[in-house]
Specification:
By secondary structure, the protein is of the alpha/beta class. The chain is built from 9 helices and 8 strands. The structure holds benzoic acid. Benzoic acid binds at residues 100, 103, 130, 134-135, 160, 205, 240.
Length: 252
């Protein structure tokens, strides 16, 4: 995750992030005694859920604020400020788990290499991230707003990494992770806050999208372009699209 986070707001208004991640834990199927890494643990709710299975779990995140909050929430668990790309934990883990974090990591090859290296042979990766086409209507609304305000918009507006099944499978395979399951699916998600829902989302997550989004007048312009696609009966629905993958580290 990025370093500019408001963990309090994240916990109070965006709990859907880990609530949707719960069934990813079913795919992980953690077992007592296993060593598991939660990569991009945020405020730690899923780390704690994994720990309830009896596994020994460690949570890492690149946001100091998130790690502080996670430690406060779950003082008995182990959390560390660490960038997945620079982690060096050779063959330490039975499984790596990651929910809603890897789309922030633009160095996807470095992340895959580090995750693979951290796994024991036959260890597993279970991850979900924004997939190809994620928040497409929202990104298009930002592009249209930039064009309407400045007469031009950058060719690429999306600052995140939203890979297709084929693209991400190729990255994982390159680093010795054999993909055993992959699915790309739509998950339209209602935002809290009624008419303010989208503006609040920008304040929480939109930092990398465009500096103009700090200007309320620009946010209103984006809202005008986005509303026909994303506003229903006074509630904003984000056009989330998830890529869910499971993989195993090759034995050799
Ligand atoms: C996502 O979970 O898909 C997401 C969250 C914040 C920014 C971009 C994508």
């Amino acid at each position: 995750m990025t370093s500019e986070w408001n963990p309090g707001l994240y916990q109070s208004s965006y709990s859907f992030v880990w609530e949707y991640g719960r069934d990813l834990i079913a795919l992980l199927a953690p077992k007592p005694g296993e060593r598991i890494l939660d990569a991009g643990c945020g405020t730690g709710q899923l780390t704690a859920e994994i720990a309830r299975s009896g596994a020994q779990v460690a949570g890492i995140d690149t946001s100091a604020a998130m790690i502080d909050q996670a430690r406060g929430n779950f003082p008995d668990l182990h959390f560390r400020l660490q960038d997945i790309c620079t982690m060096s934990c050779h063959a330490e883990f039975d499984a790596v788990f990651s929910n809603a974090a890897l789309h922030w990591v633009l160095r996807a090859d470095d992340a895959a290499r580090a995750m693979a290296d951290s796994l024991k042979p036959d260890g597993r990766l279970v991850a979900e991230l924004g997939g190809y086409g994620n928040i497409r209507a929202l990104i298009e609304a930002v592009r249209l707003a930039l064009e309407s305000k400045f007469g031009t918009a950058p060719e690429r507006v999306n600052p995140w990494f939203f890979p297709s099944v084929a693209e991400y499978a190729a990255i994982l395979e390159r680093h010795g992770l054999e993909v055993t399951f992959a699915a790309l699916f739509d998950r339209p998600t209602a935002l809290e806050g009624g008419a303010r829902g989208l503006a609040n989302w920008f304040a929480m997550f939109g930092g990398p999208l465009h500096g103009e989004l700090r200007q309320p007048a620009f946010v209103e312009l984006v809202e005008q372009f986005a509303a026909p696609h994303l506003l229903r009966d006074g509630v904003w629905f984000l056009d989330y699209r998830r890529l869910r993958v499971a993989a195993r580290k090759r034995l050799r």
